[in-house]
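Summary for the funding panel

The consortium committed to producing paired sequence-structure records for every protein in the target list. Below we show the first two records in order, beginning with the earlier of the two.
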Amino acid sequence: MSRNTVPTGCKSNLMKRFSSVVGAMDCHLNVLLVAFSVNDLSILETVTVRARVLFYNRKQRRNWLLRRLL
């Protein structure tokens, strides 16, 4: 896997809201490799209970995403 490789549908999902956890799981795995280099995501928080990774945008650092995914 290349560090700069991100699925085309993944970026749009990150910039918008995650409509489906199942659909976002593939993006999460890929984005983990480029999150720090892209700097579009400020916070990475790992939920060990369900092994999910939540991404918070700089403009929206609230628990609405947490409630939405869980």
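The next record, for a separate protein in the list, is shown here:
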Amino acid sequence: MLYLSSCKKTEPSKMSPTENSPNSLVSSRIHPPLALLGSSCRLQLITGTSSTDPAIYRMASLFDYILLVATDILNPKNRESEQSNGLLPTVPEEELKEPDYIPIAGNIKIYSLKELRKATRNFCPGNKLGQGSFGCVYLGKLKNGEKVAIKVLSSESRQGMKEFLNELGVISNVTHPNLVKLLGCCADGGQKMLVYNFIENNSLAQILFGNSHSGIRLDWRTRVKICIGIAEGLAYLHEEVRPPIVHRDIKASNILLDRNLNPKIADFGLAKLFPGNMTHISTRVAGTLGYLAPEYAIRGQLTKKADVYSFGVLLLEIVSGRCHTDPTLPLEDQYLLEKVWMLYESGDLESIIDKTLQRDFDAEEAHRLLKIGLLCTQDATKIRPSMSTIAKMLKYECAVGDKIMRPGLITDVMDLKVRAVEPIQLSPSMSPSVDNSQVSTLALAGSTLVENP
């Protein structure tokens, strides 16, 4: 197991004595060539065997290469020749702090910048698949003919390096049919890139909210299949991975669909490893408003049930064909969850089901899915079911029940946290991701989170 840390300038003679303590991640089992280099970004090999294990030395050349590449990120001289391409990220001073050690699987491939430039035709705009809060994604074709999706982290993102290391660490250690597959990474020339297998049909958001430009129509059975797949992928992260993983940014744009319209959960840049002996983690608020659980948005208390809440909102979107927030609608109709709750109380859930289905759906099943969505978004975390239970509900393996209380609504968050700030105009399709270290003001204009200066 390889441990990749964020960057810190050190000298071998000044290594902290605690780094060799039995309880630290960096122990006497570190592969010597990696442990003693001690410069800028450090890679540690943590195994259950002694440092003399031949397997460690067979892997050493690869690990040493990664170390040298990671070190190059902080070397201005090495970066000068790459500045002209406009892609090169810089590492902010804030990131040159105590490293967070992240486990990296040893089977990831290291790609050179030259190789990825060739694969994307020098990052041609025509190869761009999309753009998110942390950078762009390009279609690439490797020399063996394999198509890949290359995520280039933005040079303007303050959290770029941290997200790069985090996503690399989290996704390299998990495998599930409903998760994207990480093939490798590139840190050559100071770049921060992740290489994934190419998913043919792009994101669920583009198909669901994209005015049918994709040409793909999601029929009812396909929507149910997508819901089940996402639920099973999250159940795997929460209950089968050790330590469990909380995604923190489940939303339609982070669900990719393959050629058979099977869902793949993507974008693990905000994911958190969740210690099994803790009831919650107090952390910075990160994610997308409209999908954020109230206890997390207000108090920064993160549990697996935050993902459950986000999934509930996504489930309502899939059934209704509507985005969680639509500022073009009358105020009483703008927030999807609030609207669904109102219709549930009035016994008129069917009126929210996507009209493009043209009544070609199972009404009873649609009502069932909407009720599951409301259960997932209950204000009290203990009432929200686990993701494995949700998957069973979706597959009719357990009952849903009718004891549904008022969910935690986005308007409740507004009442508690909104202060006088200048409104921000957003298009209906925008759902920006945020990562705020000192959230004291929550300004909702569409679905954006604003940090107090």
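Regarding this second record: Residues 1-102, 417-453 have pLDDT under 50 and may be disordered. The two ends are 41 Å apart (CA to CA).
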